[in-house]
Amino acid sequence: MARIGRPTLLGGTTHGPSVRWSNRERTLLLSGDHGEATLSAHRAKSFAQDEFCSFDSDRLPYTWQLDRHGPGHDHGWTFNGHAAADGWTSAEERLAGMLASWAEHMPVQAPGDWAGFKLWASRDWGHTMIVAFEPSETNREFHAAIQDRDHEQTPERAAEMRARGWQNVDEHRWWRTKLPETDPTAAAALARVVITDLRARGTTCPDEVTAWDISAGDDGELWVPGIRVDVHPRRGEHY
User: Fold this and answer.
1) Within a 10 A sphere around the Cβ of 69, how many other Cβ atoms?
2) What is d(CA 48, CA 146) in angstroms, rounded to the nearest whole number?
3) Which has the closest alpha carbon to 176: 184, 160, 165?
4) Distances (CA, A) of 81 to 30, 148, 228
5) Which of 142, 151, 195, 217 is 20 to 30 Å from 113 at the Cα level?
6) DSSP-assigned letter for residue 10
7) What is the pTM of this model?
8) pLDDT tens, residue by residue, 80-109
9) Using the 8-state DSSP alphabet, how is residue 14 labeled?
10) Would you give the distance in Å from CA 117 to the centre of its chain?
């Protein structure tokens, strides 16, 4: 970055970074996994076409991408939440992978910024669930919450909510779970809470779930094709 400036697009996969610098002719991609990092150069137009084909055939070249309108030219056409998972197990795994990628790569690529979204289920419309990664909340970086406003908060209800994985409730009937990023199982555990609660509220499949208000520090556009539920608004061409 000291030589060529900040990236055009930030991003990550479940196993490593996916950061790119672009002009109209070339795309420079920083990718990799826990074993190695790779810097590769590509013809911009054909690279964008290949990526589009990957999305169109349900292969994900990245699980999230953050457009902060960096320098250069964005050639991409992608989908945002383009295809729901084919079952709850897949949905839970994909969500866990995206949360883990945020925890590993967001503090490096966008230091200090949180990332999060809201979920609505069609059979429980109007009940907002919040899912977020907040690096400023030390030892509580992974966060999920839902307002249980339609139920009296009896001991029986508390036992039911805790059985789903929720930790505590406040005076406004918001149930929350907060987990530390230092726990390697935290992303999977938070994803399990989210999916368990959706199913307990009558949701029958991931197709009935919509993610919205997706953001990273309220700065730029955060695209999450790896979330594997429908997303509002949908994404077509990068702008």
Assistant:
1) 12
2) 38
3) 165
4) 23, 26, 5
5) 195
6) E
7) 0.92
8) 655 678 899 999 999 999 999 999 999 999
9) S
10) 8
